[in-house]
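Continuing from the previous page...

OK, I double-checked the sequence for arsenite-transporting ATPase against my notes and this is the correct one:
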Amino acid sequence: MLFPASDDDVPFDDAPRILLFTGKGGTGKTTCAAATAQHAARQGHKTLVLSSDPAHSLADALDQELGPEAREVRDRLFAQEVDLYYSMKKHWGHMRELMLTVFRWQGVDQIAAEELAALPGMNEGSVLLWLEEALREADYDLIVVDSAPTGETLTLLTLPQVTQWWLAKAFPFQKMAVKSLGFGVRKATGIPLDKGYEELEVIFEKLERVQQVLATPSTTSIRLVTNPEKMVIEEARRAFTYLQLYGYGVDSVIVNRVLPEDEVPADSFFEGYVESQREYLEEIEQSFRPLPILQVPHLGEEVFGAERLGRIGDAMYAERNPTDVFYDEPTFTVQEDGDAYVLNLRLAFATEADVDVRQLGDQLVVQVANQRSNVILPNFLSYYHMTSAALEEGWLRVRFTPDGEASSN
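Thanks. Re-ran it with the corrected sequence; updated structure tokens here:
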């Protein structure tokens, strides 16, 4: 994670507002994303809704045929479903050819080579490259990202951090070797090693620019979609903690499919469900306070098409403007304390047993359960040493002194 970007750091002039919807699979995040996009478009905002979910249910929600490029589906509303193989041809042309040539050179048949050329991370990278293109063209007021379930979303959002490490640490040396040997390798074997690495360098630079936009709270907000059910709430808590770990701003929690109590008759089949739902709604309010909690009622029918999405959008936002930032508490701050500095990282729901902190040069390595973030320290802190780390009321507080000895928590 980079030190959080300020508005002055955003690499695109007039960057549109970005809303990213995520949550456990099956919570209805695609419905909420589509309803938000349609609601914003009806308010006059030129909107793109971009689906990164391989399930491709956005077309079903909008009740429209979609393709791998953005197309207008309603007035001021554009939609796109990311297709990996189409994206590889458009954004990863030389890398794709490099992989195909390597596999063919090793005797792999064409169909298998096409499948193997889709390397891990390419789908997530493709989503970010489409986002970079939309940002560069500056043609939208709002971009809504209907992301894959929580785990894949974390992969998507941490990919720029991985590429930044490559750019800073490993890539310069590999680049020098490829420049020296690449042309000879291509001439001897037909493998376009040099072209692939040149393209990879451009891709890394694009991902770095997207990262700066995603890490700017005034531009990008994440909206967590959950249901009033125990396991779904637990996953939302974990997702909230991990998103804070990586420095992304969550501005609201959307509770989808809430059964309206006044429409459930007494002594009905759903009476027990309504009672437990009431308890879980209170738990959500307490857990995520002071984040705004937006409730979406269960319509009692499948949600697809403009009319039903409109009802969802109206219920979700009421008088709110969906493009507003609903909550913008910083997740990352640095405070001066005499000769020392205290770095504060918001980690709601984490416990002391979950957290491990270490300083490695100009980076702070923070691990929470099975998720790890390399926090790139501000330049002035790279000359200080971490002397303590403690979790206090949902904040990880790491103390740095100019003459202390590095330690873990």
